[in-house]
Amino acid sequence: MDADILAVKTYFTGLQQRIVAALEEFDGHAFRSDGWTRPAGGGGLSRVIEEGDFFERGGVNFSHVSGGAMPASATAHRPELAGRSFEAVGVSLVLHPRNPYCPTVHMNVRFFIASAPDAKPVWWFGGGMDLTPYYGFEEDVAHFHGCCRRAVIPFGGEAEYRRLKAWCDRYFHLKHRNEPRGVGGLFFDDLGADGKTDFDTAFGLTRSVGDAFIDAYLPIATRRRALAYGERERDFQAYRRGRYVEFNLVFDRGTLFGLQSGGRTESILMSLPPIVKWRYDWAPEPGSAEARLYEVFLQQRDWA
Amino acid sequence: MDADILAVKTYFTGLQQRIVAALEEFDGHAFRSDGWTRPAGGGGLSRVIEEGDFFERGGVNFSHVSGGAMPASATAHRPELAGRSFEAVGVSLVLHPRNPYCPTVHMNVRFFIASAPDAKPVWWFGGGMDLTPYYGFEEDVAHFHGCCRRAVIPFGGEAEYRRLKAWCDRYFHLKHRNEPRGVGGLFFDDLGADGKTDFDTAFGLTRSVGDAFIDAYLPIATRRRALAYGERERDFQAYRRGRYVEFNLVFDRGTLFGLQSGGRTESILMSLPPIVKWRYDWAPEPGSAEARLYEVFLQQRDWA
Predict the structure, then answer these.
(1) Residue B233 carries which DSSP code?
(2) Is B77 an active-site residue?
(3) ipTM of the assembly?
(4) Do B57 and A280 touch (CB under 8 A)?
(5) What percent of chain B has pLDDT above 90?
């Protein structure tokens, strides 16, 4: 298992570096670099940007943590593993552009090993990426989903892509509002934990998703970054970002795992947007550009 | 039990009216009135203010809901009652002033009955109030805690006051930051559920807490409302309001109960502040007015 962890860790840290380098070139500002260690074991490297030229706030975080008792939030379908000792390695990014015509994006790849005395260690991969537009463009959403699809196809074909796309739609759903967080993308968890997927295939899919991120996102950002916006668009963006906060703090397994396992709070909560507004029982005017988000984009659709 | 529910409901709706009337007089703007019903049973009346003269956002909500299976979040120490059918009546308020020198405040009183076939119904009261300053004043915090203390003393003396004060300190604690939400006040739950407190005493304490709210809060708001503030103070307020969001969405039992039991989302989330900011790994400058909040006020202290 040790050689596997090393291989995963090497890929993850390299992925973080490549993504940050591409984002820095795109933004023109450097990401700050914050290393941290965790008293209970492990540590990480947070790469964070605030008040960039393009990104208002965002982070690309690497962490490698271990612990004596895995929280239930770490695995979707294997609650019997809760309480085992664990090792977790991952890269997680959330980027909030300033321009409301540019979508917020999230990507995560992760690898877990759960160990117990007198039992074979259980390992699995998880990950995915998803897009959250404020003012959407069909072309952008189709591009993002197309990249997701191409990343999965070599690892199980159309059926596997459909499965991870549908899982994403189910996962990034605000139950208390019966509303999707955004337009989805890919989500997977527990890949390999049932012994049916071998390590190379599971790691291969995870790498394919990680490697697809830059091409999935930057062309969209490039197309929309020069669009002019005003107070109205910023206001709607701030309102919709409230949904991002609600999802991440109430439902997101990664956030809850981090906070429950004594993770580094500031690194976990770099996913929260820089400025957010809540407003009572608000709805966009019918026929407005804001209403279009709900009517066209916050719907489960086949985009790829 | 029906006569008891009616008595509690009559008191709660009257309390809501009295509090809203006092707050409207203080603010100069009317609270909007939003009645709602819940398909699964019950409903409520939300009284909400946004963009008032003094209050930037806030609500005083009454609700009376029932359901087939009580979520575990409804009771602190009686998880064995989860799954019973329930009735819940309550008044809950959160007020976010615009002026950063005026504290955010929360008050809640609630009454539950959990029923099961072939078992005696179990009832209990819960409630409390607590204060969250941005720029604190010792005099204000002492006043608030003094009112809390006077509300409890007739119902169990100093020991009972200490118990509810300490419970509040424990409850309104952000574990992931090891930081109190504010300066505390009172918190109680499950009062009567163990059969050791009779209905009249438990209802009496709950009324005493509800009745104490206006005198606990409005003198503070009156003293500080004219204080001049600028961008710096608004910015710090927005940053600190992030902690309020984190607490309410990650830890608050009332919020989770509401969202889990299919409550009315907009009424539950009226507790969230109007404008909030998150910023990576920020800390106030030593010796600043902002640092004083942490050093003097976000500490467990005897204030009464």
Answers:
(1) H
(2) no
(3) 0.95
(4) yes
(5) 86
